[in-house]
Amino acid sequence: MHNKIQYYLLSLILILFVGCSKEPKPINYGEDECEFCKMLVMDKRYGAEMVTAKGKIYFFDSIECLVGYIENQKMSKDDYHSLWVSNYSDPGNIIDAQNAVYLKNDSLRSPMGLNVLAVENEAQLSPIMQEFGGTQLKFEDLFELVREM
Known about the structure:
three-stranded antiparallel beta sheet; 7 strands; alpha+beta; four-stranded antiparallel beta sheet
């Protein structure tokens, strides 16, 4: 009897640890709803994701919805574990939002109209900038742009 109780307790602990994972999940484009604007996340070039400090995952249809949600909820870095954005150069794959490189260009239309895209590094940004131009940004710069929307 004692072994059964230990087994069940160990199983429960394992379930709790697995259930509280702080890893991002793939965005289900066309199915997941944006936590901020409630539209479906459709465009694989612009989606975003937040993993909270408690392991809850929120999806967003654009970078500006992710930033707007953080602003609206008055969240600090202590409130979330990680932030992710779609890689414009590799649609459907997410990258660390705080280390990404951003480009603002109004001819590259994002779902909510801020017209900002994210790539993993300068090497991915260079051909896009050469073709379209625009303003290079860092994650911190996005908050002021969202406030001005």
